[in-house]
Amino acid sequence: MTATSKSNLAGLSLEKLRELFVVAGEKPFRAAQVMKWIHQRGVLDIDLMTDISKDLRENLKTIAEIKLPIVVEDFKSEDGSRKWIIEVASGSRVEMVFIPEGSRGTLCISSQAGCSLDCSFCATGKQGFNSNLTVAEIIGQLWWANSLLGGFKSSTERPVSNVVMMGMGEPLLNFENVMDALSIMMEDSAYGLSKRKVTISTSGVVPAIDRLKDYTDASLAISLHAPNDELRSSIMPINKKYPIKELLRSIDGYMESLSDKRVPVFEYTLIAGVNDHRQHARDLAVLLKDMPCKINLIPFNPFSLSDYRQPSSSSISNFRQILQQAGYTVTVRTTRGDDIGAACGQLVGDVEDQTRRSQRHKKRQLDAAEAAKNGKKAFDSTDNLAVAADRL
Ligand code: SAH
Ligand code: SF4
After folding, report:
1. Which of 150, 261, 349, 365 yields a CA-CA distance of 20 to 30 A from 283?
2. With a 6 A CB cut-off, is 117 part of the ligand 2 pocket?
3. pTM of the predicted protein model
């Protein structure tokens, strides 16, 4: 086996690690041992896994390796939050954020470099899509947070008590990798997080929500942001494909499948003059009346490419009050890590947009074909500019 085709042990779920050992002619229980070394003790060197015989370690090194993404920057906010920038194999940089709050430590993890869904209020969406993160790049964020916060030194005190898939990217568009990463987060031989403390946030990829129950029982948050299809489609293009009625039906199906009583959280980013009117709150109360749920209001976090504004605190509290009076449990997310660009929707990393690159490329090809048909020169200086812009 060549070096490049070695399995990366850091990105294998317990089930896949077991398969690897069985195929290698070893006992499947070795899988839990290796998992504990990597994810509970933070050990990335197979030679240091001392409860595994030397022969087996040598054998393992011929078929497997342990590779994690690298942390390239570390920012500390005045409020105690941290933001780390991670470089992934595609060359893009993605961000993860740690938010300590009393005894709770929440890690906000990225699932993609960029995002193709182009929600109008989101900095990540403005970058377009670059790549899906691998399982090791997703779980590697939790590994690094533990490592940098001293979590591998103590077997009882874990700095990260909660994980939310609310960083860069749409987790359900990187389905298989996110599912395997979730299983490692929740696996007792790894991080052992409970299903209540691991949350997937989605903009509403309905076919993926429909499949979700066959892979995980993690908690679910849905980015709703509008009480009707017209408004939602205008700020979240995905709504044109999967409108609200279908979305609510699929969420209901997932919640029904869970063995305990948990409710989904609807995220609602409040944008001044766009979706923060009192009537929007009343319509939202009616829309969700048949679905037990919580509502999390997120005051819009500004970023340079957006003209949107955050509503005043009185409009935020009016909006909240209307929902509370209608009987909903409503929280307003306090902005954390604002001084280090770590707040919701401000995560940008350093991502080269392949979606728009390829769209531009296609357009150039079509223009060239059209020009050739009309007997014109295929490329002129404007095309060169477009090519140069692509390289920026
Ligand atoms: N793609 C997933 C998860 C990442 S976004 C999703 O859309 O759910 C995490 C949350 O931040 C989502 O609820 C998203 O709508 C919200 N968000 C995005 N940009 C924001 C901004 N500028 N201000 C406040 N919240 C924002
Ligand atoms: Fe993508 Fe979520 Fe941002 Fe929309 S809000 S562009 S789905 S990351």
Report:
1. 261
2. yes
3. 0.89
